[in-house]
Amino acid sequence: MATNVSHVDVEAAERTEKEKSRKYPSKLPETADPPVTHDRGSTLFSEREGHNLKFENIVMKTKSRDSKKKPPKEILKSISGHVPPRRVTAIMGPSGSGKTSLLKVLTGRAGKKSFDLSGKIKFDGRLVDPTDIEVRRELAYVEQEVSIPATSTPREAIRFSARLRLDRSVTHDEIESLVNEILKELGLEGCADTMIGGGVMMSGGLSGGEKKRTQLGVELVTKPDILILDEPTSGLDSYGAETIINVCQRIAQAGASLLLTIHQPPPTVVRKLDHLILLLDGRLMYDGSLGPQLNDYFAAKGFAKPDDYNIADWILTVAQVTPIPDLEEAGFFQEDAKKIKNEDIYDSQLEEKNGARKLLVHHVGLSTEIRLLFGREMKRLRRDKLAVTVRVLSTGFFGLFYGLIYLNIGTTDLSDPLNLQAEFGAIANILISTMFGVAQSALLDFPKDRPVFLREYSTNHYSVLPYFLAKLSIECTVTFLQALVQLVASYFLMALRMRFVVFLAINFVLGITSTSMGIVIGSMVEDPNVAAELMPVLIVPQLLFSGFFISIDLIPEFLRWAQYLCSLTYAIRLSSYFEFGDCTEESCQQLLARNQVIELDTFWYWIILIAITTGFRLAGMIILRGKANF
Ligand SMILES: Nc1ncnc2c1ncn2[C@@H]1O[C@H](COP(=O)(O)OP(=O)(O)OP(=O)(O)O)[C@@H](O)[C@H]1O
């Protein structure tokens, strides 16, 4: 009897367990292998070794200086999941659920400075640090925002990426055939040679969908093992979305692990997705197959899909409409229970310890990097004709204006203090105009270039040095042109005493120093509007320490050190020396003394100008590098 009772009890218990597990299945359905159709002959879709990407207990919190006043926000709350190879995995979830944040963590782009991060990321069981450049070679990330130079065409952007990121043994013909293939597969052949566009001053331009596909193409050149895309279909019509998903599907079928975030995909797109990671409020609701099992899973938890819903719409409706306690009660968020001791997520030692596979890519040399970057910058200059023309013409206009205002000032009698002051003013105005013109362009242009640099630098296109050298050479060209146009328009009208080439050289060096300062501020801020607001910070101290408005002697001693950072001060001293150095009038000597112009020091004035340029360039490089090391 006792046996029977216990037998009945066991059966009853098993039945209850089965019913419970049917109602709230504890194991998420695994994604079945989709049919594999390889394009073995193709290079873009060539067979590759994807990774089983796993993430465990990912926690992401904002950092807060004063946690009492502003408690840290928990964006990802101990999320675990996986992205299998040969599948297209979609991350879905309501807006603000943490989709982009999770991608940033997985790709090593969640800044440690802004967030507290913990958890583990594994490729086929080995711990990896996605901020490591070797790991990034295995993983490509296509961001939501398009960051490709506006003056490049899709063909050039993809070719540029291929030349800099593929092994140096890859031939020109191989690169061209890969570029053509990517353009064809992404439906970009029709606009392959059209400028990306987008600038206010630029005509033409690609559609949003074409830009997104170009950005995808740029990342496809490395034939990544893991491809991660943030909202690749947002803002696209269903044809554009399908084109992208089709390419993603074929890349996954070639072996890659494909992960993308997507908002309310249409049924045609849902059919191409294999695996789903569903997030809600920074928590994992589901990690498993997107097949019929997903229907069963939701049905078993009491949320059976009505016939008139497609599955993606239904699960998002459930996530958005159902109160979180009810979802908890139904048994979603089961991974929350598995909170274990977390480890630093971006530990650069991890890879070493776990013997990661090193991809042997012999990168192109420094000279090729500089040549390609320089070529791109030159094209930018040629194509952005309107901006360059406006820049040079406005300089010419100001030159002419000053020339007419100070007409023949260099022929006047310097014994008259008024003439002397006017001639000094003429020189100072030309120099201020040079400084203002070039610094403004650098300050406003640089924040626009910044996202391009950050993407390319973090994806191993080139290092900081060639980028800065290429930029410097272009800036030298434009600054020289600007200085030349301004002086041709003003110097002869003013009939200045110093030699033309000397004044041109002073203006040129001052211009380059000013761009360096503009770059430091430009590299610190993201928004060109903020950069414009910071313009006075760059200009006003220069004016005050120039000796034009107040003699340096009259500035309080504790502030005088700042003159050593002001390039305009030294440009004015040099120009004053060459303009008035031969003048024996007492007023001339007094002016030189007031501005601390000492004949023996003129060599040092040049050196200080060059040192200021070098110092600011280095500071710009360090700041940008720091920003790129997320
Ligand atoms: N730097 C930050 N500081 C504070 N909160 C942040 C920061 N970055 C993201 N968040 C917050 O984290 C949450 C998740 O943001 P995330 O961009 O990952 O969501 P999402 O699911 O991608 O949203 P969407 O679908 O609208 O793009 C949001 O509430 C967002 O406001």
Automatic annotation (TrEMBL):
Biased composition (Basic and acidic residues): 8-22, 36-46
Domain ABC transporter: 53-306
GO terms assigned for molecular function: ABC-type transporter activity; ATP binding; ATP hydrolysis activity
Chain segments carrying region Disordered: 1-46
Protein's cellular compartments: Membrane
GO cellular component term, pick one: membrane
Listed name of the protein: ABC transporter
TM helices/strands, residue ranges: 386-406, 426-446, 467-494, 500-522, 534-555, 603-624
Gene source species: Nitzschia inconspicua
Assigned keywords, A-Z: Membrane, Transmembrane, Transmembrane helix, Transport
Membrane topology term: Multi-pass membrane protein
Record-linked PANTHER family: ABC TRANSPORTER G FAMILY MEMBER 28, PROTEIN SCARLET
Main location: membrane
UniProt keyword Membrane, yes or no: yes
Database matches in InterPro entries: AAA+_ATPase (IPR003593), ABC2_TM (IPR013525), ABC_transporter-like_ATP-bd (IPR003439), ABCG_transporters (IPR050352)
Pfam families registered for this protein in UniProt: ABC2_membrane, ABC_tran
